[in-house]
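request received
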Amino acid sequence: MKFTKEQSLAMYEDLTFGRSMANKIVEYIYGGRINGAIHPSLGQEAISAGILEAKRQTSHEIYTHCTHRQQPLIARTIGLDPFLGELMNKKTGMMKGTSGEYHLVSIKDHHLPMQGVLGAGVANATGFAWALKLDDKDAVVVCSCGDGAMSEGIVYESINLAAINHLPIVYVIENNGIAMSTPIELQAPHEDLYLRAAGFNIPGFKVDGNDVEAVTAALMGAIETAASGQPVIVECKTIRWTGHYVGDMQAYRDTSFLDDTTGFDPVYLYEQKLISNGVADEKELADIKKEQETLMADAFQRAWEAEFPSKEECVNYNNLYSNEAGGEL
Amino acid sequence: MKKMMGVGALNLALNELMADDPKVICVGEDIGDMGGTWTYFRGLKATYGTNRVMQTPISESGYTGVSVGLAYGGYRPVVEYMFADFATLASDGIVNVAAKARYNSAGALSLPITFVFPQGVGQAGCQHSQTVEGWFANIPGLKLVAPTTPADLRYFLKAAVLDDDPVCFFFSRPCAMSIQEEVDEDDKSVPSLTNAAKIVKEGTDLTVIAWHSSLLKSIKVVEEVEKETGKSIEIIDPRVLCPFDKEKVFESVRKTGKVVIANEECERGSFSSHISAWIAENCLKDLKMPVKRVGSYNTCIPFGQVEQFALPQEEDIKAAIMSLL
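response:
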């Protein structure tokens, strides 16, 4: 698949958008400005960027279900400030800072509900794809989950329903090789999870999840397949750089592979490719990166300065029920 | 007017709902040509097709989550679990997802979805006989509806499905497949879920609050007791558990000062316990005797013909009433 310079730079911008965000999250957590277990996309930015580029290029309407590590994709979909507001529990968040980054949903932005319990959102996304099919929409759901969620039974019940009913859905497995502390060899008898597609009689394949162009090309094809009523599984192989959450000391694994990331760093690899292919020079790329870093620093600062929601905003009847028939809080 | 059983009334309600709104869909196991295990989906597939009567594989967890996704996509699913006991498999989609959907959108969206739980005994033992409303009473974001009579099953299923929030609808299989009642097919009214309790029978000396099989048993027992003692006993069917019609219950308790709460849940952690607590908190000075709950033993329901040993019987309800009178 050939990409224009404009498309290439857009992908690079998404990669650096993701990288700047991940670095800022780490900085804010160690700076004591974000509490809670947050899972940054560090090292996995090419998957978000690839989905974003495929979304821009396809003629079909796309709805996405995101993993918790696809923060760049989420922020691009619902807006950076509403995302960061929720990340930091502030009123400026999409849900006014009350329910958190784990559970974001905005149907109008085509962002399908994320759930805190692994696999649940995959079922919801499958049902949403069913609704799109019933409504005869020219639309496809791109539903991501991690290798960890691929051990949840509900994922297979959902893929089964999608296959039986020919739903327009692409299942993206973001396989970073480890679920919290459990490495892939303790999760699965074979490291290639896409092979399970065969059991549902649907296509499945794997792609280098650290190569943004490969991810984009794979998704472009998969989206066409799904649009024709054929669910499909795309496994993106990547590597988790941080702990499960920032602050996780990772006593369970050897992290010396991080001494040299040049072989698998999606941002670095794409920079090298664009320069060596003569698509862009170092200065152009450095400018884009700098621009994203500045934009991100400003957005984080805005979120940091915003107010927390009040008790009344958190314990609020209207947040639970749509009419008077809900009983007392 | 037409005489029908509860399952016929549920079938009537589904037909009315599906005819009125193309977004109403049914999801569940064996609800197609078979018409559902309890028969109330009969004829729906033939009338509305497989796009609206979605017969699923045996995958309660998956089809619950998928139904929630359909609701996010603008549909109004009626999701059936063949036995209420299977709620355990469906619970993540109900408890963690549906119940939290509105909260997780900061009140921006409502999720209209109805989870239907056929419950009560049928000689199928401890995993096919439980009464489970208490399991869900602890979950903010859900509404709990539990009607008993055929007419009420029809009215309140319609109210549940037309409500814009997630509703757990509990009905008793033994009740819905035994007693018959005249149902006015021309009455298209839909009751409110608020203030839904019904005074089944007025009385002044004691209040019985009961639903499902225990309601039917209570009606019979009260007739006997009144004849034997000359006392006057009030019977209340709550019909909706959340929002609970506290005022109607409190008013009755203030009048009689004596309360028996009867339901087939095992006693510990039951919805009856919540009612008892509310009465204690609000009507203590009106009570002449302690509140008495009658439920199943805190045990598993035995298989087959001996199941009755675990359940509240007419004599248990009678003994509770007599101990207070």
